[in-house]
Amino acid sequence: MRPNVYITRRIPQSALEKISEVCNVEMWEEEDIPVPRAVLEEKIEEIDGLYCLLTENIDETLLNRAKKLKVVSNMAVGYNNIDVDAASRKGIMVTNTPGVLTETTADLTFVLLMTTARRIVEASDFLRNGNWKTWSPMLLTGQDVFGATIGIIGLGRIGESLAKRAKGFDMRVLYHNRSRKEEAEKTLGLEYVDFDTLLKESDFVCVMTPYTPETRNLIGERELSLMKSTAILINTARGGIVDEAALYKALKDGTIWAAGLDVFEEEPVKLNHPLLTLPNVVTLPHIGSASIKTRTLMAELAATNLIQAVTGQIPTHLVNKEVSNQ
Ligand code: DGY
Questions:
Q1: Residue 236: CB within 6 Å of ligand 1?
Q2: Distance between terminal CA atoms of the chain?
Q3: Is 156 near ligand 1, meaning CB less than 6 Å away?
Q4: Is 176 one of the catalytic residues?
Q5: Which of 41, 136, 218, 242 is most buried by its number of CB atoms within 10 A?
Q6: Is 80 close to ligand 1, i.e. is its CB under 6 Å away?
Q7: What are the residue ranges of helices labelled H in 118-260?
Q8: Could you report the per-residue pLDDT of 124-176, keeping only the tens digit for each?
Q9: Is 157 a catalytic residue?
Q10: Partners of 318 in the beta sheet?
Q11: Closest Cα to residue 316, out of 89, 88, 71?
């Protein structure tokens, strides 16, 4: 019997073909609209495998409807959209796609850092809106990147790759992480510091940590008040890690200088969100890993994880390892 799987969005052909060789596939065909909850609730009852994106909320209520589900394969490295504990209790495997998106996401983080520091979006709009009357000494001046201090909160794979880029710009690299990474300190010349020191001494504070109950609102009013008035906050991890109301206030009253945000607490962010009214905020629509090559690799890796699970193997990128022992 071929396993039945449901895919919650149109995915790259190579990944779809891979899955179709082994499984009976049903797929939500819309490109721009997430699968409605009601459809997911109906589909999940009869399938062996679910292939989903970070736009789907795979909570306990949904998982409770599943009668024979073996795996939820998330096409993302982050899996805060899935109630992993609930899945584990039901013996459902959860998988993710680490590794393949590391460099692409580090690239985007550095791009966002430079774009924010040098006011690139503002400068481009300035020209196109017909405001460029003459060259003048302090027009659209920003912050230097070379030689500045970057503070990386969360030194996982992407954090380390970001550090490599920063070193190329002769930056002093501070990091804070649950555990020290002494090897990386030696090979990359990084400095481990406590959280508050990182906030106080960094010109660029980069949020690179996973989103968990512990990291919710990790950057709030207190943390922003510790940062330099010339500091720039960069977040390419998850929106909920930064308290958006506190960030708005800090940017508006000059507590910090600017922010570059690829992620928001609620996505897509509403166009009337206060942060979108500020000129010192650069915003992107969650495109950290969005290169053609990387998104294709992520889709294929999620396909491999799914196939492994529904054919009785232990998936390579199993998040809840305890399930494989049940
Ligand atoms: C992830 O994988 O978690 C990103 O946010 C999307 O690439």
A1: no
A2: 23
A3: no
A4: no
A5: 242
A6: no
A7: 120-128, 157-168, 182-188, 195-201, 221-226, 244-252
A8: 999 999 999 999 999 999 999 999 999 999 999 999 999 999 999 999 999 99
A9: no
A10: 95
A11: 71
Maximal CA-CA distance, the chain: 72
pLDDT of 325 reads 62
Q: Is the CB of 76 under 6 A from ligand 1?
A: yes
pLDDT at 326 over 80: no
Q: Which domains does the chain have, with CATH numbers?
A: 4-97+292-325 (3.40.50.720), 102-283 (3.40.50.720)
Q: Whose CA is nearest to atom 2 of ligand 1?
A: 76
- Residue 31 clears pLDDT 90, i.e. is over it: no
Q: pTM value?
A: 0.97
Q: How far is the CA of 78 from the centre of ligand 1 (A)?
A: 6
What's phi and psi for 152, nearest 5 deg? Answer: -105, 120
Provide the edge-to-edge strand list for the sheet that holds 149-153: 191-192, 172-176, 149-153, 204-207, 232-235, 258-261, 281-283
Q: What percent of the chain has a predicted confidence (pLDDT) above 90?
A: 98
Taking CA atoms only, the protein residue closest to ligand 1 atom 6 is 76
